[in-house]
Design goal:
The protein folds into two domains: about 1-30; about 40-255, Rossmann fold (3-Layer(aba) Sandwich), CATH 3.40.50. It has helices spanning about 5-25, 30-35, 55-65, 80-85, 100-105, 135-160, 185-205, 235-245; strands spanning about 45-50, 70-75, 90, 115-120, 165-170, 210-215, 255. The protein is α/β, with parallel strands linked by helices. Strand 4 (about 115-120), helix 6 and strand 5 (about 165-170) form a beta-alpha-beta unit. It binds NADP nicotinamide-adenine-dinucleotide phosphate (NAP).
Length: about 260
């Protein structure tokens, strides 16, 4: 007997069994989720905080269109429609809320992340020492300094499992102690603290191959930057991504602008 004839019905049965299995897998929410969160394109995963608007949303847009898997966080994911249209995952995160940070870490347990962009921030414009309010000042430090510290701490296992090992902290040129023309109490201190955290973290994680960067985006037309700012979000993020993609081990712990220039501490 011709063996190919004998095996034809078996092959057909195997084909249908495999097709059925594929259908079941496609319909499974668990597996569908793990696909959405998996590594698309060139397989890199980026987590961006405050990704529902402004620079965070533009980072999400550009990395997603470049084939990255984007995990974007928002304080209110239900309202983050622009982000949800782009990101593989939109997860809740308020960087001042420790339960929220813990829940994020739990949701991402075991999932490698190549790059963390600590982008979420606030900018209360406090012009004179008489205007400093203790609660507002403390909140600025919580959002801009302690928030990124705790988010980084919580996601370190994910970042250690990632290949890139990049931690990018979005700072400001207003954090420069050398170039300080006054005003903006609280904000300057909060971002200077973020810069110090970046440097300290870089020193600790350098043996593991991490690159940590404090990156100033320029003056950008977001809700924070206002309509008179010199750069569009697209221009700023395109430039920052260029800086990020050029990073090597020797750049860790630096304070740079979107142009690539080193900013004086
Ligand atoms: N735009 C500029 O000219 C400029 C210049 C220098 C540095 N920066 C820095 O760039 C980063 C992004 O700024 P942007 O211009 O895109 O500002 P933005 O348009 O005001 O967006 C700020 C983002 O941070 C989020 N956020 C605020 N408080 C948060 C909290 N407690 N937990 C989690 N997320 C929180 C906001 O979420 P909600 O929508 O829920 O409020 C929003 O997604 C900031 O770190 C900022 O300091 C901006």
């Amino acid at each position: 007997m011709n063996p190919s004839i004998a095996t034809r019905p078996t092959c057909r049965r195997l084909f249908w069994a495999l097709s059925l299995l594929a259908l079941i897998i496609g319909a499974s929410p668990v597996l569908a989720d793990s696909h959405a969160g998996g590594s698309d394109g060139d397989g890199k995963v980026v987590l961006i905080t405050g990704a529902n608007r402004g620079l965070g949303l533009e980072f999400a847009r550009q990395y997603a269109s470049d084939g990255w898997t984007v995990i974007g966080t928002a304080r209110s994911p239900a309202k983050a429609n622009d982000l949800k249209a782009i990101a593989a995952d939109t997860l809740q995160l308020d960087v001042t809320d420790r339960d929220s940070i813990a829940a994020l870490a739990k949701a991402l347990e075991g999932r490698p992340i190549d790059m963390l962009i600590n982008n979420a921030g606030i900018f209360p414009r406090v012009g004179a020492i008489e205007k400093v309010d203790a609660d507002d000042y403390a909140r600025t430090l919580m959002v801009n300094t302690l928030g990124p510290v705790l988010v980084t701490q919580a996601l370190l296992p994910n970042l250690r499992a990632g290949e890139r090992k990049h931690i990018v902290n979005i700072t400001s040129q207003l954090a420069s102690i050398e170039n300080n023309g006054g005003n903006f109490y609280g904000y300057r201190e909060s971002k200077a603290g973020l810069n110090m955290f970046t440097k300290t973290l870089a020193a600790e994680l350098e043996p593991e191959g991490f690159v940590c960067l404090a990156l100033h985006p320029g003056w950008v037309r977001t809700d924070m930057g206002g309509p008179s700012a010199t750069l569009s979000p697209e221009e700023s993020v395109t430039a920052m991504r260029k800086v990020i993609s050029s990073l090597s081990a020797g750049d860790s712990g630096q304070y740079r602008a979107y142009t690539g220039a080193v900013v004086p501490w």
